Amino acid sequence: MKEVLSRRFRRGVWRYKELLPVSDEFIVDIGAGGTPLVHARELGRRIGLRNLYIKNDTQNPSFSFKDRPASVAVSKAREFNLPLVGCASTGNLASATSAHAAAANVPCVVL
Fold this sequence. Notes:
The protein has helices spanning 2-5, 41-47, 67-79, 92-103, and strands spanning 37-39, 53-55, 85-87, 108-110.
């Protein structure tokens, strides 16, 4: 499995392409995922954990962990040839969905 996962898409959410339900030609990849783990030594020390790591998702395109599912969702919408994508959100999901839709040149509606 490790060899399969590291073959073509080596970074971000698309590193796991072989496990995701999207055909290659429809992938919208603006760099979601692959964000670093930061060793939170001081916070860990304060709460009694030597190896506390925090995922730094501010390095995603819209600064949110929601970029990962948005990348897959907009890619799948392209594969289904949908005329637009949308979501109901007041924050991070709206940003992630609209960023990926814009990259794919797909209209986006946010409620």
